[in-house]
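User: Sequence for Gfo/Idh/MocA family oxidoreductase below. Tokens please.
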Amino acid sequence: MTASVRWGILGTGRIARDFANALKDVPDAVLAGVGSRSLDSARSFTDEFGGAAYGSYEALVAAGDIDLVYVGTPHPAHAGNVRLALEAGKGVLCEKPFTLNRREAEPLVALARDKKLFLMEAMWTRFMPALAEVRRIVASGEIGAVSQLSADFGFTSDAGPEHRLFDPALGGGALLDIGIYPLSIAAALLGPVESVLAQAAIGPTGVDEQTTFLLRHRGGGLSTCACSLRARTPGELTLSGALGHVRMNGMFHRARNVTVTTAAGARTVETPYLGNGYVHEVIEAQRCWREGLVESPGMPHDETLALMGVMDAIRRQVGVQYAADAADAVA
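Assistant: Structure tokens for Gfo/Idh/MocA family oxidoreductase:
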């Protein structure tokens, strides 16, 4: 095993660039290669960030000096790209949403397990110290038995209908792009989702431009979640119990502190936040890969599949469908 973990990045868009910047902040991470459908695009990327340039995804995953592959391509490409990397024997960290639906996700998990290769959904909030602190506070009993959570994530976009955010052919819509954040953290704190009720505002291209959903969790807890491409929301998360509540301050996916409020008063706890956020998932993926794990205990396969199923249910309720949802779609 090498001292450093050698990463390959599949894709050269904004998210891939953010991930490459994060690798700079992880001392034992190395960007070994970047794959694009265009060699010129890959070379432009590596001129800035380093690593070898590959003019195809196939060439990247076949490279012998790459340990883990980060999939940062558009949503509809995730399933095929993850399969490509796994079949080449590479561990994979796949950007959220993991796939377009649960049916696409299931065979990927099965393949990773069969080949004993690491596979994880790239959800950095699961590994933030702020979330760990919230869990510690809950476990201490300070806010009593928790039963309710609220979380939102929204920004305004003036992009045209051809942009990936609004194009159904590219898996557009608020839910898959940013709704997964409040959904995932709600499940992390209140447990598995047993039922969901959703409402959405559907835009002219047929995707959800804002969605709200109410979740009932195993054990009876309730959470209200919202996502929007029309409104700049606070992006906060509050978890409430019988004795008080704890809030992840600022935008919860970038929280640098949490505030606990009870009858005795309020106190704020500072929590580290590394780099641009992606650093947290990089550290976890490397830890798991080095230990020979197939999945992360913080973002296990079964939970990724369950949350994909919840988003499938939400989209059915609000009337958003993608080509991959067709009965004859191939996973």
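The first helix runs from residue 14 to 24.
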